Amino acid sequence: MSLPASSGSAGVPARLARAKINYALHVTGRRDDGYHLIDTLAAFPAIGDRLALRPAPAPGLAVSGRFAAALEAAGPTDDNLVWKAARRLAAHLGRETPDVALDLKKTLPVASGIGGGSADAAAALMLLRDLWQPDLADDDLAALALELGADVPMCLASRPVRASGIGEVLSPLSPFPAHAVLLVNPGVAVSTPAVFKALERRDNAPLPAIDDAGFASREALWSWLGGTRNDLQAAALALAPEIGTVLSALEGLDAVRVARMSGSGATCFALFDDLAAAQAGETRLRSAHADWWIAAAPVAAVAPPSR
């Protein structure tokens, strides 16, 4: 799987660390080491944190943005997954330390079920591979990504994908239709380990089969999603009833195709045919829930594979 290139403004190398949205997530088992087996369809709208290289006299990670304080409260900068990714790639390339300065603008909620930390780590791997060793193979970078976390390889790809195993077995989806997503987080922290611990069943059926033609239309995607679910949603609802309030608000919007929780929560999403409909929903919810994090974003189409 080829990976997207890095880009930035004014000559500053930068990447958008796109949010990972689990449109469907089935828990299908658990390994002997405790890791849960999943089958998920994930997409990556055009919204996320921003990671950039910056000139500085000393290496390190600087964090800014709406959720910077929440990220810093979670632990020291050296424990941040971005800096862990930098250290891991430096070690792989035989560099003693990551001799770079990184600037992370944290615009996604922390620990919210949309892969923010994993996406930030993936962005770090891409930026620093391009800086230090551009010819490092994509497969080698993906192997390093898996060492950092099960979600990091799919965030590295940052495109519509079906993922199985613990999240590392990736099947890119093409074609995939353009549409839009509205994301809502009520500002409630939900522990992923606690959600998995609260599961009543861990041996659910996998996702339905996807037609060889992929999702050639939005209608095909909506229809397929109707036969899926998020197996973590009920457990997360029991821990954080506010998720139910968010889902009810999303389901009450006009033109919603699917409304569901992403990952282990507490972020929920609604899918729409187009960005205008998602933005109308965003405006309506903002007027009623000023304390929620609410954002609409497009999901780009993926063309059919060339013959």
Detailed description of the structure:
There is one protein chain. By secondary structure, the chain is of the alpha+beta class. It is built from 10 helices and 12 strands. A hairpin with a 5-residue loop joins strand 2 and strand 3 (36-43). It starts with 13 loop residues before the first strand and ends in an 8-residue tail after the last strand. The model has no long low-confidence stretch (mean pLDDT 93).
The share of residues in helices is: 25-40%
Oligomer designation: single chain
First and last CA, distance: 17 Å
Order of helices and strands: EEEEEHHEHHHEEEHHHHEEHE
Largest sheet data:
4 strands, mixed
- Percent strand: 15-25%
Shape: globular
β-strand number: 12
Helical segment tally? 10
- Output the strand order for the largest sheet: 1-4-6-5
Task: Return the structural class.
Answer: alpha+beta
Rounded Rg: 19 Å
Low-pLDDT sequence parts? none
Average pLDDT, rounded to a whole number, is 93
Strand and helix map with partners:
Layout (H helix, E strand, L loop, with lengths): L13 E5 L2 E10 L5 E8 L4 E6 L6 E5 L3 H6 L7 H12 L8 E5 L10 H17 L5 H11 L3 H6 L3 E4 L4 E4 L6 E7 L6 H6 L20 H8 L7 H7 L2 H10 L6 E4 L6 E5 L2 H14 L4 E7 L8
Parallel strand pairs: 5-6
Antiparallel strand pairs: 1-4, 2-3, 3-7, 4-6, 7-8, 9-11, 9-12, 10-11
Helix pairs in contact: 2-3, 2-4
